[in-house]
Design goal:
15 helices; about 0% strand; mainly alpha
Length: about 250
């Protein structure tokens, strides 16, 4: 994430608002529409000012934003530590209204972050009943199932998501982790191998592949993939843990 300096934040706020007065006063919050409040909140978040960001996201929620804007508000509140507020906001918007898959999916993702995977799964299931091919809901449902140690069911969701988004590194990474957690280490390695030499994937994908290579005894390849990411002590501990899990590879 880009770390803006206070000066850059001030310039950004000036551009957003068309002026350079302080952005946190109540009078200015009241004069802004929800979109302007959202832009200020996101600028504050990029600068690292979590307090201002949370305050402006909360202010944007009071301005009658659209459903799409409300999703951004809820996600912003969640990123800045206001998980309960974000979930309550979404539930309030959905109350007494027709089924809204996007808001349900966002609610599920927030409940995952809040450590409530069973509630998250219920939200994802409802969203998927209305929109079965929602890739994000499928992938996030897999995470909720994994957190409940229901790995086989999680893997079904990840594979469905990958049928719709072939080659997605994030979903593939989650599938590999799920397979590894259920003892299928070599299958997990096979899922991540296509990303071994890719330059446009998140670092954690390479790290996880490196750990799987170490668990399979390929120390040289593991070292290449993990160089600069995991020190030798951590690598040894991780390799032992993965090796213990790998002993059950092939079991359901």
């Amino acid at each position: 994430m880009t770390c803006w300096t206070p000066m850059l934040l001030a310039v950004s706020v000036c551009v957003v608002l068309g002026g350079c007065a302080p952005v946190s006063s109540d009078s200015q919050k009241d004069s802004m529409d929800p979109d302007a409040r959202l832009r200020v909140a996101e600028a504050a978040e990029r600068s690292g000012d979590r307090e201002l960001a949370a305050s402006m996201y909360a202010a944007a929620a009071q301005g009658g934003p659209s459903d799409a804007a409300l999703e951004r508000v809820a996600e912003g509140l969640a990123r800045n530590g206001k998980l309960d507020d974000a979930a309550a906001l979404l539930r309030q918007r959905m109350q007494g209204r027709p089924l809204q898959p996007d808001l349900l999916r966002t609610l599920g993702a927030i409940e995952v972050l809040a450590g409530q995977p069973a509630q998250a799964e219920a939200a994802f299931s409802e969203a998927l009943a209305a929109r079965p091919n929602d890739v994000k809901a499928l992938a996030d449902d897999g995470v909720a199932l994994d957190l409940q140690h229901r790995h086989a069911q999680a893997q079904v969701m990840y594979r469905k998501a990958l049928e719709l988004a072939p080659g997605d590194a994030e979903i593939s990474n989650n599938l590999a982790l799920s397979l590894a957690m259920s003892g299928h280490v070599q299958e997990a390695r096979a899922v991540l191998l296509p990303f071994r030499d890719a330059t446009d994937v998140p670092e954690r994908v390479k790290v996880n592949l490196g750990i799987l290579e170490a668990a399979g005894g390929n120390a040289a390849e593991a070292q290449r993939l993990l160089e600069g990411s995991v020190d030798q002590t951590d690598l040894t501990m991780l390799t032992r843990a993965m090796g213990a899990g790998g002993q059950s590879a092939g079991k359901p």
